[in-house]
Amino acid sequence: MKLTAIFMVVGLIISISWVAWGFLPMLAILLTTLILGAIGYILDILGYSINDFTQRLLKRLSN
């Protein structure tokens, strides 16, 4: 559930930034938050974790 929360917060931050720089309907904020939340939820279900992701990324960067 950590990835779900992270992706939802990222979606909310992106949406609020869009509104701050120009008017977008509230629907854009909700859709972005829900879409990124759904991505995080799917990644949670598939068993991805931030620790595994960072380990794989660091391993690839070190080679």
TrEMBL record:
<feature type="transmembrane region" description="Helical">
    <location>
        <begin position="29"/>
        <end position="50"/>
    </location>
</feature>
<keyword id="KW-1133">Transmembrane helix</keyword>
<feature type="transmembrane region" description="Helical">
    <location>
        <begin position="5"/>
        <end position="23"/>
    </location>
</feature>
<keyword id="KW-0812">Transmembrane</keyword>
<protein>
    <recommendedName>
        <fullName>DUF2273 domain-containing protein</fullName>
    </recommendedName>
</protein>
<keyword id="KW-0472">Membrane</keyword>
